[in-house]
């Protein structure tokens, strides 16, 4: 039996990148041999084993054929006579279909090295279509490496979308790929590729609907709301923001797709209108709570955050309470980070200041800078306490907010 390093580890080593997980393929062995050598099987009916010491994955060389829709539809054929080349041929992209033997020799029957050098994501064979997750993977690798999708692969992905292949994807896999892609260096590339092949219209129709929707050129020199959205997402990545923040950046303007045509390019009320579509996306892909909550919060309140300079002190306190900022200060700060990305994700505005962020944080600190126990103790009736605390918070906020309003008069 021979073992070869395969897939991502070979690719990343050739790119000079640090290796993450290492996957191995085993040729000329069967399950019995693996078990005798102490390898541990991973699940049933699946020719993958864990090394007894390194715990790295060793898969028997296999061919793969789809016999029905969905994941249950896969049948593997693993046998000692399956060759390395046959195993590589069933893989998704040429850059992922290379192996390395024990002497360091690269086995590259599909010219993955040439595509790596050219920065191209190209499918290995028509078997690419057997797994629609590969569309998401391809978009994610574009986001990671900045590579282009080969024209024939883009055409194949379009065919897959048109054939309804993307409709069958399950929430867990979609979210897993989206989340990984959002955390890459160029997440906007992932969205561009998904848009170009039509998968975005299936997976995130609410985001796809933003393309072609105009905005006021004075606030948004890039005009197109879809382009703005991708610029905001990219700013969020460039700022090193977290997954919930990047996800919220992607969804913050969903309401703009619902603006009545007669008020375009204005978008009054898009913050309120966006909440339902954000909730739809959250539910469709079973988005984890931290991401789902922040996306809804940012969508609903980003216009208010931007226009703090127009608010009365009492309104500021009301917003701090409604956003739950007093109890969830970190989430509030995360929302403000997304607002910075929103402001900078506009053509020519990449270095805009956003004094609103520091000001909101100062307002929040002021509102928290009261002695609630002492205030409660001074109240004669329990039902007076809440109003007394509010009054004390307001007294803290008022001078700050009045000073800010004298200096700034931003509105959205
Ligand atoms: N849908 C898939 C998933 C995986 N693979 C193959 O299995 C290898 C390992 O898969 P995985 O670890 O998921 O991806 P990597 O390419 O290693 O990428 P990452 O760096 O994200 O782990 C891939 O390189 C590819 O050859 C595939 O062909 N089709
Ligand atoms: Mg891997």
TrEMBL record:
Biological process, per Gene Ontology: RNA repair; tRNA 3'-terminal CCA addition
Catalytic activity reported: a tRNA with a 3' CCA end + 2 CTP + ATP = a tRNA with a 3' CCACCA end + 3 diphosphate; a tRNA precursor + 2 CTP + ATP = a tRNA with a 3' CCA end + 3 diphosphate
Residues that hold CTP according to the record: 8, 11, 91, 137, 140
Record-linked InterPro entries: CCA_bact, HD/PDEase_dom, HD_domain, NT_sf, PolA_pol_head_dom, PolyA_RNA-bd, tRNA_CCA-adding_enzyme
Cofactor: binding details: Magnesium is required for nucleotidyltransferase activity. Nickel for phosphatase activity.
SUPFAM superfamilies in UniProt: Nucleotidyltransferase (SSF81301), Poly A polymerase C-terminal region-like (SSF81891)
Chain positions recorded as Mg(2+) binding sites: 21, 23
Pfam families, sorted: HD, PolyA_pol, PolyA_pol_RNAbd
Taxonomy, superkingdom: Bacteria
E.C. no: 2.7.7.72, 3.1.3.-, 3.1.4.-
Domain HD: 225-326
One MF annotation (Gene Ontology) recorded for this entry: phosphatase activity
PROSITE patterns, A to Z: HD
Transmembrane regions listed in the UniProt entry: none
Alphabetized UniProt keyword annotations: ATP-binding, Hydrolase, Magnesium, Metal-binding, Multifunctional enzyme, Nickel, Nucleotide-binding, Nucleotidyltransferase, RNA repair, RNA-binding, Transferase, tRNA processing
Binding locations of ATP: 8, 11, 91, 137, 140
Domain comment in the entry: Comprises two domains: an N-terminal domain containing the nucleotidyltransferase activity and a C-terminal HD domain associated with both phosphodiesterase and phosphatase activities.
Family per similarity comment: Belongs to the tRNA nucleotidyltransferase/poly(A) polymerase family. Bacterial CCA-adding enzyme type 1 subfamily.
Function summary: Catalyzes the addition and repair of the essential 3'-terminal CCA sequence in tRNAs without using a nucleic acid template. Adds these three nucleotides in the order of C, C, and A to the tRNA nucleotide-73, using CTP and ATP as substrates and producing inorganic pyrophosphate. tRNA 3'-terminal CCA addition is required both for tRNA processing and repair. Also involved in tRNA surveillance by mediating tandem CCA addition to generate a CCACCA at the 3' terminus of unstable tRNAs. While stable tRNAs receive only 3'-terminal CCA, unstable tRNAs are marked with CCACCA and rapidly degraded.
NCBIfam families documented for this protein: PRK10885.1
Misc note: A single active site specifically recognizes both ATP and CTP and is responsible for their addition.
Subunit structure comment from the entry: Monomer. Can also form homodimers and oligomers.
Name assigned to this protein: Multifunctional CCA protein
Lineage, highest ranks first: Bacteria, Pseudomonadati, Pseudomonadota, Betaproteobacteria, Neisseriales
